[in-house]
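Could you join me in thinking about how sequence relates to backbone shape in a protein? We need material for that, and I hope you will provide a protein of your own picking. Label the sequence line and the structure token line clearly, so we can match residues to local backbone shapes. Would you write everything just below, so we can both look at the same thing?
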Amino acid sequence: MPARVSESYILRTYPFQEADLIVSFFTRDQGKLRGVAKRARRPKSSFGAGLERLSQVRMTYYQRENRELVNLFSCELVRSQFELQAGYETGIALDFIAELAEQLLPPEEPSEKFFRLLLAVTGHLAAHPIDGIWPAVTYFALWAVRLSGFLPELRVGRESREIAEEMLTTHIGQLAERTWTRATAADLRRYLVRLVEDHVERRLLVAPLLESL
């Protein structure tokens, strides 16, 4: 099988052996994969800054049958989150988005909607790094849970035209019949975080830092 090239988002990396990294990345066409990046921890690595969290890259890799890990050859950086990582608040937001995606995405199941969700929220953060953190985080948390099948179908009134108002005024799950407004967005965010934590193997690491902002 020839090497593949996939548009991808880097979700997480783990040290492996002396100079290698295990990389969890979400591809647009193959879903979430994990692979070994040889010599990625060396100063002159060919991967460069492409393996930073939520970097948008074109990943080149080779996938063998019946092998859990793919072999990573290189990645071409499409969009870096370096400027966002420099800010404490935006860095935590990126950590939360990456961890939530890592926990919720099943292996090797493509999801064009989830990929476009990542494109939208990272683009919004880049355009609004100061006042766009909580709208991006709340939007991502809601739709990540929705796309993962944890929430029922959202019912939107005909008069609702803005997606933010649609999200905040929709009755969700087993909550009492309560209308969400911008003033109660923080309560909605906390509810969504708890909902995610009930469905993942361990508690989210970044959530306490996120709530402390």
User: Anything to note?
Assistant: Helices lie at 82-85, 88-104, 112-127, 133-147, 163-168, 185-197, 207-211. Residues 88-104 form the longest helix (17 residues).
